[in-house]
């Protein structure tokens, strides 16, 4: 937490102050022993869940199903103040190496989310208003309220509203923190869950329903309901962990393929990552949905994997290529499709890998597509690929400046590149959300091959000797 900016610290202080105000000034009144015992059980359930979260795919955040305990408190403890008190125990999390500031922020965040959910529940005529002719005041005694079996369906609507409010407030406060913290902005933009923010929201809303299960079982077996619900809660945690582990395995697979290409061709070291980043910048600029942004990012990362199928002597050759050698290079997109075509999660990314060397005028390869025949992913990768090639040092020239590369992209718009994609990339560069840094010339390691030509460079096209 020492790396946080002043604005982030101020944000934490405000959130903690709001939560403190809620807990201090909200009317609790006189709590019955049953109410206190119920609170203790739900707080313990929350603490158990919060202390054993599962790490998400990005390894920059974690998820736990603790919201089920908070939402059960919304019903059983009569609205907001009980739920806020349950959420506040996040301060006591038993996770190791959690700084005090993070503990305070998490406790305040869950307390505010619980209080907001409770107020929403009561505002939609939850169980306390539905079955009591009067509302509790600070001078009245709090009891535990379990809806009668015949009236349970009346709780469903208000509970759904409370669950939605809890999830939105919780994630809103968390993402506000991530966006203010300059070290976490990138994580906030791409999402910190296996499928991004929408999937995590769906998980939270779905597993919040287990809070309603706790309420239903409470009327039958009392506090033992929490122990029973721990089983599906931990199954949920395990499922999220497995999904995250699968995503990490996907990323490791892609990284291994990219490393193999970099070993084959020295000049591709870091190139795949930069093209991937450029493709992501363009996709966000044109407002692609998150799932397609992720797919085009994969495509950018693997666009040159077909070089593994190009003979090493062709990559190393210094000088004019024969028609056969040039054909071998032209086939590398198809070789890439052969290598990664069976990786199911790539989906649309495969079209970008296959066609990223097509041209708008139809003079590209491997299929000679033109204009709208070229897949959108391929158009995006073509721009990012050419830009990185121009702004990287090669054996035959120094890196061009960003301004010079932009001029070349504009020259090629309409003939080689899609003008809309070029404009989107230039706008993304101007926005500065993901600053493009020129790469310093790297020294080849002993086992790396130093290529003499770059087929991605639109400034210096490959030279081919004509034979008859």
What can you tell me about this protein's structure?
The protein is mainly α and 468 residues long. The chain folds into 2 domains: 6-245, no CATH class; 263-431, Orthogonal Bundle (Hypothetical protein af1432), CATH 1.10.3210. It has 19 helices and 4 strands. It has helices at residues 6-25, 33-51, 67-76, 80-88, 100-123, 127-131, 153-180, 185-190, 197-221, 224-264, 271-285, 290-302, 312-316, 323-330, 332-340, 349-355, 376-390, 402-412, 419-431, and strands at 30-31, 54-55, 62-63, 141-142. The strands form 2 sheets. A two-stranded parallel ribbon has the order 1-4. The protein has a two-stranded antiparallel sheet with strand order 2-3. A hairpin with a 6-residue loop joins strand 2 (54-55) and strand 3. The chain is elongated and about 90 Å long. Mean pLDDT is 78; it is low at 130-141, 185-195, 447-452 and 464-468.
Q: Care to count the β-strands?
A: 4
Number of helices: 19
Query: Quick check: average pLDDT?
Result: 78
Task: Give the total of domains.
Answer: 2
Summarize the biggest pleated sheet. Answer: 2 strands, parallel
Low-confidence stretches: 130-141, 185-195, 447-452, 464-468
The radius of gyration over CA amounts to 28 Å
What share of the residues does DSSP label as strand, in percent?
A: under 5%
Helix and strand sequence: HEHEEHHHHEHHHHHHHHHHHHH
**Broad structural category:** mainly alpha
User: What shape does the CA trace take?
Assistant: elongated
Distance between the termini: 69 Å
Strand order within the widest sheet?
Answer: 1-4
Helix content: 55-70%
Question: Which key phrases capture this entry?
Answer:
mainly alpha; Hypothetical protein af1432; 2 domains; two-stranded parallel ribbon; two-stranded antiparallel ribbon; 60% helix; elongated; disordered C terminus
